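Figure 3 (text version): structure tokens given as input.
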């Protein structure tokens, strides 16, 4: 008999002050999603209510507390709000419905439009604005924030007025302008990711993932039928991978990822600057997940006359911190979208049934093999970042499957 990795510990829905407990026998389908490109977690649950008749009482905006554990007591879930009710079916005394869940912060974010100055005076560092002023001040979040492990300090300060933006829109805008303290200077690479995983909010530079430790090694082509043998403490064995995208050159050409020209005017001193970007110089200086050989086709862009995108910007360096590296700040900011594009250079997907220990933002080592001789596949092996987690449970199967989307910025080794 196959071992189940799904335990529904708590599933409570609060309706008009009364708490309704939903059991595993009433739960037909569960989907749990984390995404590095999304500010919050999401869930989708289908229930049947022959015992409680709760479906007919749901109107939306009800509070939900859900806690699910695997066979090793790793937990997922938390506090949610029902933002939509879909696929209601009534058949005699039995009805079922699909509940769409988001976090309370996501609802509060949608309801707030801010016209407010942040970083008054000489400005505040962006990480302080994100954590203290927006998450803690405006949203008054109850989500965990681990400053030491999940919030990376920024080098640059900022002062600005939000033009009636939502809090998460402001954070997304600031993320593209954030420069890490460790990477500040001539070779600094701007660009942060803001996301929520099972441990809380994260605000990290794309460069930092290259320095994060590997939490698990994933071995392809060695899957066992037994759950515990598939998913050990430090090793995960899977049957196959699917490469979803590998170096979208056309997209890179359109956004200037390989060769571009940025013309800027600084309102602080009215200086004009012409900034040329070339992937060959940038690639050698940026922190990468892997140390594989630079792609050969990059050589085609090693010319000043081959810019595939020309951009113009108006900046005001008076809004940033004063110091040795302020002069290079406009260059760093112009590279933020390019760093993000490089981060998603290769995208692949894997599926397995196992523990719930892996989460978005984790760095894993992927080992793949090729041919009948199972030679080591250097092109697809290497370090990857988990960019998306989807965990799905069907009552008929009695086990929760996991689908991971993995991304990397460089050829493997």
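Below: residues designed for each position.
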């Amino acid at each position: 008999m196959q071992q189940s990795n799904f335990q529904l510990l708590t599933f409570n829905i609060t309706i008009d002050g009364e708490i309704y407990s939903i059991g595993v026998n009433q739960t037909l389908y569960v989907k749990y999603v984390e995404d590095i490109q999304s500010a919050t977690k999401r869930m989708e649950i289908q229930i049947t209510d022959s015992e409680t008749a709760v479906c007919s009482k749901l109107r939306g905006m009800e509070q939900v507390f859900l806690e699910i554990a695997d066979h090793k007591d790793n937990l997922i879930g938390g506090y949610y709000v029902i933002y939509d009710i879909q696929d209601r079916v009534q058949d005699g005394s039995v009805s079922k419905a699909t509940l769409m869940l988001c976090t309370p912060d996501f609802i509060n974010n949608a309801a707030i439009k801010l016209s407010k100055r942040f970083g008054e005076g000489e400005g505040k560092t962006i990480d302080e604005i994100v954590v203290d002023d927006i998450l803690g001040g405006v949203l008054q979040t109850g989500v965990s924030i681990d400053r030491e492990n999940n919030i990376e300090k920024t080098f640059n300060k900022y002062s600005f007025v939000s033009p009636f933006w939502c809090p998460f829109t402001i954070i997304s805008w600031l993320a593209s302008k954030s420069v890490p303290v460790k990477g500040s200077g001539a070779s600094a690479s701007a660009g942060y990711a803001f996301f929520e995983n099972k441990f809380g909010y994260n605000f990290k530079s794309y460069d930092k993932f290259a320095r994060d430790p590997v939490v698990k090694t994933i071995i392809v082509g060695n899957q066992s039928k037994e759950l515990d043998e598939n998913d050990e403490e430090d090793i995960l064995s899977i049957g196959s991978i699917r490469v979803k995208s590998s170096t979208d050159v056309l997209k890179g050409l359109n956004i200037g990822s390989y060769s571009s020209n940025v013309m800027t005017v600084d309102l602080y001193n009215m200086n004009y600057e012409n900034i040329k970007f070339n992937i060959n110089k940038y690639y050698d200086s940026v922190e990468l997940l892997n140390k594989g050989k630079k792609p050969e086709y990059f050589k085609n862009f090693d010319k000043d006359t081959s810019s595939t995108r020309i951009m113009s910007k108006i900046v005001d360096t008076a809004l940033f911190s004063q110091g040795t590296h302020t002069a290079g700040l406009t260059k760093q900011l112009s590279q933020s979208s390019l760093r993000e594009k490089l981060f998603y250079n290769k995208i692949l997907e894997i599926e397995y049934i196992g523990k719930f220990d892996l989460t978005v933002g984790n760095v894993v080592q992927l080992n793949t093999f090729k041919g009948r001789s199972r030679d080591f596949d250097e092109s697809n092996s290497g370090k990857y970042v988990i960019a998306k987690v989807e965990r799905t449970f069907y009552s008929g199967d009695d086990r929760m499957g996991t689908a991971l989307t993995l991304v990397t910025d460089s050829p493997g080794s």
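The mean pLDDT is 86.
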